[in-house]
Amino acid sequence: MAYPTDRKYTKQHEWIQANGTAGTIGITDYAQQSLGDIVFVELPKVGAELTAGKTFGTVESVKAVSDLYAPASGTVTGTNGDLATSPEKVNKDPHGSWMLKITLKNPKELDTLLSAADYEKFVAEEGGH
Amino acid sequence: MRYLPKSPADREAMLKTIGLRSVDELFAPIPAEYRLSRDLKVPRQMAESEIVEYFRQRSRENGEGYTSFLGAGAYSHYRPVIIDSLISRGEFLTAYTPYQAEISQGTLQSIFEFQTMICELTGMEVANASMYDGSTAAAEAVMMAVRLTGRRSVIVARSLHPEYREVLATYATHQGMPLSVAGFGADGRVNLGEIEKSITEETAAVLIQSPNFFGTIEDVATIAEVAHKRGAMLVVSIAEAVSLGIVEPPREADVIAMEAQSFGVPLGFGGPYCGVIATREKYVRQMPGRLVGQTVDKQGKRGFVLTLATREQHIRREKATSNICTNQALVALMVNIFMTVYGKVGLRELAKQNLAKTAYAAGQFAKRGKVLFGGAPRFNEFVAETSEDPHAINARLLGHKVVGGLPLKKFYPELGNAALWCCTELTTRTAIDTAVGVVAEGEGSARSVKEEARVEEVAR
Amino acid sequence: MKHMTRKATRHVNQNEGLIFEKSSAGKAAWKLPPLDVPEVETSMLLGSSERKDLGNMPEVSEIEIIRHFTRLSTWNYAIDLGMYPLGSCTMKYNPRVNEAVARVEGIANGHPYQPEKISQGALQILKTLSECLIDITGMDAITMQPAAGAHGEMTGLLMVRAYHHAQGRPRKKILIPDSAHGTNPATAAMVDYAVENLKSDSRGMVDITALEAQMNEDVAALMLTNPNTLGVFEQQIHKIADILHAKGGLLYMDGANMNALVGKVRPGDFGVDVMHLNLHKTFSTPHGGGGPGSGPVAIKKILEPFLPTPVVVTKPDGTLGFNYDRPQSVGRVRAFYGNFGMFVRALAYIQANGPDGLRQTTEDAVLNANYIRKGLEGTYDLPYSTPTMHEVVFSDKLQAKKGVRTMDIAKRLIDYGFHPYTTAFPLIVPGALMIEPTESESKEEMDLFVEAMKSIAEEVEEDPQTVLDAPHSTRVSRLDETAAARKPVLRWKPQG
Q1: A62: closest chain C residue by CA
Q2: What digits encode the pLDDT tens for the residues C103-147?
Q3: Which residues of A touch C482 (CB under 8 A)?
Q4: Measured distance CA(B51)–CA(C98) in Å, rounded
Q5: Which of C34, C102, C214, C231 is the most exposed place for a label (fewest CB within 10 A)?
Q6: A1 falls within a domain
Q7: Average pLDDT in the A50-77 region?
Q8: Could you give the residue ranges of the DSSP H alpha helices within B79-157?
Q9: Does any domain span residue C274?
C-alpha cells in the first residue's frame, strides 16, 4: 500500500503530520493490520507531556495490547473522542483516524523519522521475515 | 494404581512405538545425582474405604455435631441440597476455565447470571466472576482505587475484619501504599471525625466494612460524602452476604468487595470461599479478575465469552490489573444456585429470620451482661461484654456441645471481656437460651479454680 | 465432512435461556421453617438502612433450577467426558472419593475460629498434608495459605523480599525466562520488583551465558519453571542454582509442571529455595470451571522465619495448634488458613496413591506425552528436539503455509470430540500447540487424539476452509469476541 507522503513515520508504526508546531499523531495501516480488530484505545489527557520514543498510551485488540510510542516530544492539545465509542475507525481508516493533536516542542525531531518511501521499505522487510 | 487407565501390555506397546526399552529411559534427562532412589515418605497406598474412615475419624475430632455462635467473616447458613447435586455434575466439577467458549457455554452462561445477580444485590453496574475471598477482594479493590485515582494512601476502618486489615497491610507494603486506621465510636461505627482528619489530596480510598466486624451497619452515605469531597474513592467490604436481603446495599460506594460464602458455600474450616468485586461500568477496565460478556456467534445466536482479557496476566503480564489466574468458579456456581433458589423474596425472608434470631439473642444477653454498640442498627452479629472472661464461658459451653462467641481481646484488647456472637436462621431458640443460661452462671459469681484450668484448655 | 471422527458425533442438547427469562412473581424454590423467636419490625430495627426491594432477582421453582443448570451443564466439555490436552494445566482425573470426604460433617462445617480443642481433625489434616508435600518437594517447610498458584507466587516473592531485607541488602529485580507463564511477571510487578527478561537458548532452555551475564547483586531471584513450558527438563539446573546462590540470589520454582517430577526427583534436591505447588494441577483437585485452586509454597529453612502467619505447631501436651507469634512473618496473604477443602482432596489423592502410585503416575504422565510426540512428529513441526517430559510443544509452521494457524486447528479438534490443547503459548514458539495428556489418558484415548490431529493435518492440505470455519458441531459457532470487547455487555438487563 502507498503510505501518504504528507507525513513522517516511526519504526513503531506511528505516523505524525506536522504543520509548523501543530502535530497530529496516529498509527499506520501496517499496525492496524497486525493488531487485528481494535477494541480499545487508551490515550493521555489534554495537557499531558509526550517525550519522543517513550510510550504514551496503548491500543488493544481482543488478544493483545500494544504500547503506543511518541514520534516526537510535545504537549497534548486534543484527543480523538470518536475512538472511545468507535475504536474500529482506526481499522477502517488508520491514516485518516487521528489519535492525538500535540504542540511540538522541537519540530526538528521529525527530521530523524522515516519518509513514506522509507517506511514502506521498512515494512516490506519486516513483513517478509 | 486404580486411577491409571493402562495395562502392562499397553505400556509395553507404547514403549515399543516410541522406541524405548523401559520407562527409566524417559527420565534420563534428570541428572543421576538427583534421581530419587527411595519411596516418598507419604502414607502407604490406601483403599477407598480406608480413606473414608480416615476422614470420618478426623471429622469426629473436629466438632462434629456442635452448635456454633461463631460468625466473624464465616457464616453458618443452610445449604440447599440441590447445590451439591448440580455442582457435582462432572460437566461443572471437572470442566476447565472457559477459554474455549464454544464448549464452555454452560460455565459461561452461569457466570453471566452470577454477575447479573451480584449487580442486582449490590446496586453496582458490573461484577466480576470471583476473586479468592473477601479479604483479597478488599485488597485488590483498594489497589484498583489507587490505579484509578493515581493516589497512594488509604484510610482503613478499624471496624473492618482484623484479618482483612492484615491482608491489606501485606499487599500494601510493597506497593508503597501508606495505610492509616480510623477507629470506631461507642456506637460501633467508624469514627467519621477521624476519617475527616486523616483524609488528604493523597488519599486514594477509604475502606470500610458494612455490616462491619461487630455486625453494625455503617453510615455509608455520609462516609461516601466525606471521601468524595476530597476526590477519594469509597471501597466497601461486605462479609455477610445474607445482609443484602434486608439491608440497603452501599450504593454510594465506588467499589464493593464482597465475600459471598454465606450464599451456599460450606464453612470448610476457612476455605475455599468466594470473593467478588463489583463496581461502576466506567471503572471496568481497571477491574481485576475474569469477566464474562454476552455476544453472538457467526449465525447471530446469543452466546457468552470471557472478555476484556487484556486486563489480565496472560496478556498484559507485568502490566496486568492483577496476577490472578485461577479464581473460585465452582464456589461461585454454588453461590449462583443459592441466589437462584432463594431469589427475590426468599433472600429477604432469610435475612429477616437472621435479624429476628439475633435481636432475640441480643435482647436476652442484655438482661445478663452488656451488649455493646447499641446506638446503631445491626444485622446478625452483636458484641456482648461479660464480667467473666469469655474463654471461661466458652469452656463451659463446650460441655453442652455449643461453641460460644468469638472472644475479642486478641483483636481489640480495649474491649476487655467482649465476644462477638452470631445468630443465623439455623440458630435455635433453645441454643440461644442455653448459651444465655451458661453466661448467666458466670455473671456476678467468682471464678472457681476448676474453671481456671478449663480456661487454659480452650484459650486460643 | 470427508473425514469422519470415531470419537464424537453431533450431540443435540437443549436450548436454555437465562434464568431471569424464566422468572415470574410468586414462584419459589425455598421454604424456611417457622420462627421460634418473636417476629421483628424491620423498619424499627434498621430504620433507613432497611432494604425494601431486591430488584430483578429471579423467582423460579426448584425443578426449573434443576433443569436450567442440568441443561447448561450439557453444553460443557469436561474431564469426565474426555481428554484435555492442555499444556501445563495437568487436567487429570478428579477422584470422587475426594468429593465425598470433603463433605463429611465435621470437616465441611468446621468454623475456622472454633476452639483448637475441637479442631484437632482439621489441624491433623493440615499437618499430614504439609509433611507429605514437604517430602515430595524436598523442602524444609511450607505454607498452605495461598489460594492459587499466582497467589503462591506472590507469597513466595514476599518471602524472598523479606529474606533479602533481613540480610540488609534489598534487591530490585527478578529474572524471568521468556518462556514463562504470564502470572510470573504479573506477580513480580505486584511485589514491586522490576522484571528482567532472560532469553532461552536454541534448545529452549535457560541460556547459561545470558544468566551469568545478567546475574548480579540487584537480582533477588530467578523464577523458573522446571520442566519448562516446553516440557523440557533444565539439565543445567545445578549450574543455574550455583550462579544464583554465588551472588546471593534465590531460585524460585513455579511448580506448575510437578506432574513430571513427583516421586522421581525433588526440587529441593536440585537447588530450589522456594516454590509453589498447584493442588488443582498435580494433586487432582477439580478445576470446577476455573477454580478454586490452592497454591501452597514450600521453602528451605532460610526462609522459614518469613512464613505467613499462623503456622501449625505441636504443643507440649501433644495436641496441635496455631502459632501466631511470628515476628518476622510477611503477614497474611488471606483471611483464615487457606483453601482447606482442597487440602482434604489433595490428601485423599496422596493416600489413594501411596508412594508407588505417585511414582507410577509420574511415569505414565511422561510416557503418555512421549507417545503423543512420537505419533505427531512429522505431521506437525517440532521446534525443539530436546527430550520431552510430561508435555510436548509443536508449532503450526507447516500448516501456516496454507493459512491455517494453531487456533484454527484447535477449533477443528473440537469437532473430533476433544478439548483444544493450549494455543499460542509459550510465547517463544510462534504458533504453539502445547500438549499435556497427563497420566489419566488411556492408550485408546490417545490413539484417537493422534488420529484426529493427523486427520486435521490432512484437511489442512485438502480443504483448509473446513478447518478455518471450525467448529461445526457445537451448539454455538465461533463467537464474536471483538464485539464483546468493544461494547461489553456484562449483565442481563430487563427489557424496557
Answers
A1: C482
A2: 999 999 999 999 999 999 999 999 999 999 999 999 999 999 999
A3: 37, 39, 61-62
A4: 9
A5: C34
A6: no
A7: 90
A8: 81-87, 90-93, 105-122, 134-149
A9: yes
What's the CATH number where C337 sits?
Answer: 3.40.640.10
Q: Look at C486 and A39 and tell me if their CB atoms are within 8 Å.
A: yes
**Average pLDDT over every residue of B391-412:** 96
Residues of C in contact with A61 (CB under 8 A): 482
Query: What residues does each domain of chain B span?
Result: 67-77+343-458, 81-339
pLDDT for B445 beyond 60: no
Of C434, C430, C454, nearest to C378 (Cα)?
C454
The pLDDT tens digits for A16-36 are 999 999 999 999 999 998 888
Enumerate residues 317 to 376 of chain B having a beta carbon within 8 A of any beta carbon in chain A: 319
Among A112-121, B320-329, C372-381, whose mean pLDDT is lowest? B320-329
As a CATH number, domain B67-77+343-458 is 3.90.1150.10
**Which grid coordinates are listed for B305?**
465469552
CA distances from C43 to A59, B189, C34, C51, C149 (A): 51, 19, 21, 9, 46
Q: pTM score > 0.90 for this model?
A: yes
Closest in C16, C352, C490 to B126, CB measured: C490
Q: What angle do CA C97, C101, C102 make, to 5 degrees?
A: 115
Task: With a cut of 80, say whether residue C435 has pLDDT above it.
Answer: yes
Q: Which residues of C touch A (CB under 8 A)?
A: 424, 481-482, 484-486
Determine the structural domain holding residue A88 and report its residue range.
8-106
Instruction: Give the total number of structural domains in chain C.
Output: 1
Contacts of A58 in chain C (CB under 8 A): none
CATH of residue A46: 2.40.50.100
Confidence of residue C185 (pLDDT cuts 50, 70, 90): confident
How far out from the chain centre does Cα B17 lie?
Answer: 51
pLDDT at residue number B314: 72
**What's the structural domain count of chain A?**
1
CA-based nearest residue in chain B for residue A42 = B285
**Interchain pair A60, B310: CB under 8 A:** yes
pLDDT band at C224 (very low <50, low <70, confident <90, very high): very high
B91, B113, B308 ranked by CB distance to C73: nearest: B91
d(CA B160, CA C422): 42
Q: Which residues of B touch A61 (CB under 8 A)?
A: 310
Would the CB atoms of A62 and B316 count as touching at under 8 Å? no
The neighbouring-strand residues paired with A72 are: none
Residue A1's pLDDT is 65
Interface touch C482/A37, C-beta < 8 Å: yes
The pLDDT score that the predictor gives to residue B455 is 59
All residues of chain B having their beta carbon less than 8 Å from the beta carbon of residue C131 are 41
Write out chain A residues lying below 8 Å of B309, CB-based.
Answer: 62-63
The Cα of C402 is separated from the nearest Cα of chain B by a number of Å equal to: 23
| Torsions phi, psi for B126 (to 5 deg) | -135, 150
* Interval B195-219: pLDDT, tens: 999 999 999 999 999 999 999 999 9
Pick the CATH number of B81-339 from 3.30.70.1560, 3.40.190.120, 3.40.640.10, 3.30.200.20: 3.40.640.10
Q: How many CA atoms lie within 13 A of B9 on its CB side?
A: 1
- Which residue blocks in B273-312 are alpha helix, DSSP H? none
Mean pLDDT of chain B: 93
A64 touches chain B (CB under 8 A): yes
Q: How far apart are CA B335 and CA B181, in angstroms?
A: 32
User: What confidence tier does A2 reach under pLDDT thresholds 50, 70, 90?
Assistant: confident
User: Which tens digit of pLDDT belongs to each residue from C34-57?
Assistant: 999 999 999 999 999 999 999 999
Contacts of C445 in chain B (CB under 8 A): 5
Gap from B92 CA to chain A (nearest CA, Å): 26
Best of B148, B310, B311, B314 to mutate (most A CBs within 10 Å, chain A)? B310
Instruction: Tell me which residue has cell 464456589.
Output: B331
Nearest CA to CA, how far is A64 from chain B (Å)? Answer: 6
For residues B184 and B194, what is the distance between their CA atoms, to the nearest angstrom?
9
